Amino acid sequence: MRHFTALALIVGLVACGGGSSAPTEPGPAPAPTPTPVPTPTPNPYAAACGVPLPSFDDSYGFGVKVQLEPTVNKKVLNANPLVKNPAYCTAAGMPNRSICNTRPEDVPQRAPCDHYLSGISDTGLPGPNWFEDVDDNGKLVKCGEAGTHCRLKPENQYLLDVLAPGTYVACGGKGSPGTCGGCVLTDDSWGVIHKNPSGLCAPG
Fold it and tell me: CB atoms < 10 A from the CB of 109, how many?
């Protein structure tokens, strides 16, 4: 009877899991925490420009004209960003035009709208970067560098002092659509003060 009891006890121990159990499968690894995406800094010029805001897709370069002739051998160029969109021109207060400035000259939104479309120049000021086509074949050199005949005006990035005939180009700066506009000043436009110099620029 004792032998039977001992045998039954051994069998019971084996039946109760005396062998090793299967290893537990590890669970899925936790998903990594996503890196927060920084909130874009709003463009202050866009906010100040208001509605309508010129679309970069409608940017039509810069209109460049002679603003002043301080002497017979010096001209001051002025660049204004242009928009090509009749609906925009009408909404901005300039109806019946297909190409226009960002706003009429006498409204307070004109400056921030111009800054928005022109971007920030390499000087850190709002407005275009200025170049001279030094070989009249598309070799653009920044105004103020050696071999150029143009000088930036530190008080206003939209203005440029020009000291000789040639081709001068304004291009949008950082944060702009990067479009350009130019002015060709011929030899016969030099050496005299004109009554209306704004028409001296041929498109560049």
Answer: 20
Q: Per-residue pLDDT tens for 29-70?
A: 666 777 766 666 779 999 999 999 999 999 999 999 999 999
CB under 8 Å to 90, separation ≥6 — which residues? 96, 97
Query: How many domains would you assign to the chain?
Result: 1
Output the six-digit token pair for 58: 């409608």
Owning domain of residue 85: 46-203
> What is the three-state SS of 41-95?
CCCHHHHHHCCCCCCHHHEEEEEEEEEEEEECCEEEEEEEEEEECHHHHHHCCCC
Rg from Cα positions in the chain? 36
pTM of the model: 0.80
Nearest residue to 166 (alpha-carbon basis) of 68, 77, 100: 77
pLDDT tens sequence across 125-149: 999 999 999 998 899 999 999 999 9
Determine, yes or no, domain membership for 3. no
Per-residue pLDDT, 35:
73
Query: Cα dist. 95→55, 88, 89, 107, 121 in Å?
Result: 17, 9, 6, 15, 30
Identify the helix (H) or strand (E) that includes residue 132: strand 129-133
